[in-house]
Write a structure and sequence with these properties.
The protein is built from five helices and eight strands. It is α+β, with helices and mostly antiparallel strands and 234 residues long. The chain has an eight-stranded mixed sheet with strand order 3-2-1-4-5-8-7-6, sandwiched between helices. β7 and β8 form a beta hairpin.
């Protein structure tokens, strides 16, 4: 898929875009009766400058897979910490557009308001699409937290060391297993984002949405790479 013509190409342009979009984030809301919830993730082939995005829709009650879609494109932006959304979002948007079922909520493998400029991937994606989004990350990025209690559901604030602002929660999704880091993306509150994360982690540390999307984008990238190599040989 082509990169949008107006997509930022420099660090200055990307920073300006984050500043423009930040006031549009809505940090409150509930999932309500939405039946469908999606996960998105990406995988890279750095050698060929390619990114593969996956979107997987689950039934929120049963966690059964309803639909899957992938999209492959050129990497849209260089690697710069804090600006990863600009590398990933064009392909993620294409994968979401390929779905025939529109999810009410999207879970991102990354950050929302837990971001230096309060506009991580989840918030950025939510503002662009209007979808409800939340971020569930594997690491706390640059933020501070105390270890949550040992039991599933225990949580502690994730805070900005400079301002002291609470930007998310460290959440124990499995007893005795290291926490995940949940933050608001768009149109959802933090308590509701934590509740959604716990509902999506009945057996594993990471949400089922993320697990399925991660597996799908890796498989799709492997198939694409194998096909490209075979084409080059022939």
């Amino acid at each position: 898929m082509p990169i949008p013509a107006d997509w930022p190409t420099t660090e200055a342009e990307a920073l300006a875009e984050q500043q423009r979009l930040r006031p549009l984030v809505e940090p409150t809301g509930t999932i309500g009766d939405d039946r469908l919830i999606a996960g998105v993730d990406v995988a890279y082939d750095d050698e060929r400058d390619l990114v593969v995005a996956a979107a997987v829709v689950l039934d929120r009650t049963t966690l059964a897979v309803v639909e899957e879609a992938t999209a492959t494109g050129r990497v849209a932006f260089p690697y710069i910490p804090g600006l990863l959304a600009f590398r990933e979002i064009p392909a993620v948007l294409d994968a979401l557009d390929a779905l025939t079922h529109r999810p009410g909520t999207v879970v991102c493998d990354g950050y929302g308001l837990a971001h230096p400029r309060r506009l991580g991937l989840a918030s950025h994606l939510g503002v662009l699409t209007g979808l409800r989004t939340l971020g569930v990350a594997k690491t706390p990025f640059t933020f501070d937290h105390l270890p949550p209690g040992p039991d599933r559901g225990d949580r502690t604030p994730l805070t900005d060391p400079v301002t002291g602002e609470e930007v998310g929660s460290a959440v124990r999704t499995r007893a005795g297993v290291k926490p995940v880091f949940v933050s608001v993306g768009h149109r959802i509150g933090l308590t509701e984002a934590v509740e959604a994360t716990l509902a999506l982690t009945p057996r594993y540390r990471l949400p089922e949405t993320t697990r399925h999307a991660d597996s799908l984008c890796r498989r799709a990238l492997a198939v694409h790479t194998a096909t490209t190599i075979a084409s080059d040989v022939n």
